[in-house]
Amino acid sequence: MKAYVFDGKESAKLEERPKPKIIKQTDVIVRVEKTTICGTDLHILRNNVSTFNPGTIMGHEGVGIIESCGELVSRFKPGDRVIISCITSCGRCRMCQVSKFGQCLQGGWLLGNEIDGCQAEFVRVPFGDTSLHLVPLDIDTDSLVLLSDIFPTGYEVGVLDGQVKPGCSVAVIGCGPVGLSALMTSKFFSPSEIYAIDTNSHRLQVALELGATHAIDNSDGTAVQQVLDITEGVGVDVVIEAIGIPVAWDMSQKLVCPGGNIAVLGVHGKSATINLEDMWKRNFTMTAGMVHTNTIPMLIKQIRAGHLEPKKLISHQFNLSESEKAYSTFIHASDHETLKVIISNEF
């Protein structure tokens, strides 16, 4: 089969790989219909993810049709169309028992990281019964593939962990797809102000169209001061950091108001300093971690109700044979006004 593979050093390309087989009887083999590229994939290509297994097929998001199931799979059957969760969960360990699937003792983020992922014709999904979701027939697959990762991540790790509440103020640092997902789902709680911060003018315009009240251009490095001027020096209640670099963390500390929350979405590959000499007296809360994807069923309901339109983040469509072009378009987002790219399996 065709698959997009990274050697763990500097070469990523589409190549021939053996079709996956069932290894354990809880496995499911899915023929991938649609997948996409995540900002985390770029962190992998930059060698910022220590858990990545060199030579692994990339990708952890997808929608597809089940081709075969292990004998212990009871919730699904061949022919079912499913959303592939970016998180693999055994459903039995003590972490899964409290719905902390991202910390599953046997799973967690495996696909496209420790084991072969979704940017291929077929993918093996461990623990299929608890790692897949049936696709509702009334929602398009382009929207549903975005529920594999970025919308649950934006909502759970950003909005819920950041404790967005009605009438509060929110700052989103980084208006890539996951930052915009956090922005869109924060509106479930009716914040009074949403400050979208980026250096990309197109993404800032999109943020305004999606509900941001303020677009803050940080091209000259003055975003923090701009927000502090607007808020009379107080800052914002919830800062959602969606980039994953030290400078974004530094901005978060300066932007959060006393008693506020910083929710880190960004995948950090380098150390970042908590400036406790300034922050100890701020009564702030900081959260970070893996998504659990337990909100996928709720997000499906929000799409059906018309409260969420994931397709608004899709900017480009490619075939699997065009994976290298898709990556180039995603990497050079400013040149192509790229948000989320969809990769369809045409084979």
Briefly, what is this?
The protein is of the alpha/beta class and 347 residues long. Helix content is 26%, strand content 24%.
Would you write up a description of this structure?
By secondary structure, the protein is of the alpha/beta class. The chain is built from twelve helices and 16 strands. The strands form three sheets. Strands 3, 5, 6, 7, 8, 15 and 16 form a seven-stranded mixed β-sheet that branches. The chain has a six-stranded parallel β-sheet with strand order 11-10-9-12-13-14, with helices on both faces. α4 crosses α5. The termini are close together. The model has no long low-confidence stretch (mean pLDDT 96).
Shape: globular
Query: What is the level 1 CATH name of the largest domain?
Result: Alpha Beta
In the CATH classification, which architecture of the largest domain applies? Alpha-Beta Complex
Number of domains: 2
CATH superfamily of the largest domain: Medium-chain alcohol dehydrogenases, catalytic domain
Mean pLDDT, as a whole number? 96
Main β sheet profile: 7 strands, mixed
Which percent band covers the strand fraction?
A: 15-25%
| N-end to C-end Cα span | 9 Å
Q: How is the CATH topology of the largest domain named?
A: Quinone Oxidoreductase, Chain A, domain 1
- Give a count of the beta strands, DSSP E runs of length 2 or more: 16
Q: Helical residue percent?
A: 25-40%
Computed CA radius of gyration, to the nearest angstrom = 20 Å
> Helix segment count?
12
State the low-pLDDT regions, or none. none
